[in-house]
């Protein structure tokens, strides 16, 4: 996550503090979700002009860890008790070399375990999108099958996913992650959040012509002097659904140019892959059975908006 003092591009911007949510942990809205998902834990006070999250503010957040070298290299999101999402460009190296990875859940400070919810879980298998293209980062999505079940509680739980693509241009969404604070700069110890605005695809295509107008699988975001950065890749981009008052994952961080420069950031459109996610979750039933996990709960725990 990064902020800079670069020149303002030709995208209209609204100060993110105006839309920073103060309804975290609030009651469900007028519309229900298919199961409990996407809640946030309300901060007692807001950090003025700050970007650090409250401890366990976003229960669905996960860090992706190199199990051998013991470092965080990408973000991810919990979607069931047995599965997490991240970007394919985060996992391609591990798919090719076979090196193991893990996820860390319930964490805030990666270098100081300060919550009872923090737990490291090994990844049993990486299911990378079969049509992923490294050159263009098309289909930049991977599903992670976990080696053990996540026990959900108030501090750890799944994000909501929409079964249909959402048309939310000009609305604000949150990027969450442990990414660098500036281009080639240091990474933070604690989890960060930033509000950015979803752009119309034609605005994004001024910079990235690969974002398709028809059958789009990517979305773009922008906010003046704010963006994702190295280490945020694969992490969730979430929208607070006003009808459910729950966070829906609308994207996962894919790519940009230089952090917080004059250009937007491109994300994989997660709802565009709803069917792919569901099919591949179902494809892990046998492995989950072999791991002695309760696969009858999987579909009930893949939560979304109705």
Automatic annotation (TrEMBL):
GO MF, one annotated term: serine-type peptidase activity
Matches recorded under SUPFAM superfamilies: Trypsin-like serine proteases (SSF50494)
Localization terms from the record: Secreted
Gene Ontology BP terms: proteolysis
Keyword hit for Lipid biosynthesis: no
Region ranges (Disordered): 1-34
Gene Ontology annotations for the cellular component aspect, listed alphabetically: extracellular region
Gene3D superfamilies: Trypsin-like serine proteases
Domain of life: Eukaryota
Domain Peptidase S1: 47-282
UniProtKB keywords: Disulfide bond, Hydrolase, Protease, Secreted, Serine protease
Name of one Pfam family that matches: Trypsin
Keyword Transferase annotated: no
Subcellular location, principal: secreted
PANTHER family the record matches: ACROSIN-RELATED, HYALIN
Name this protein carries in UniProt: Peptidase S1 domain-containing protein
Source organism of this protein record: Ranatra chinensis
Organism placement in taxonomy: Eukaryota, Metazoa, Ecdysozoa, Arthropoda, Hexapoda
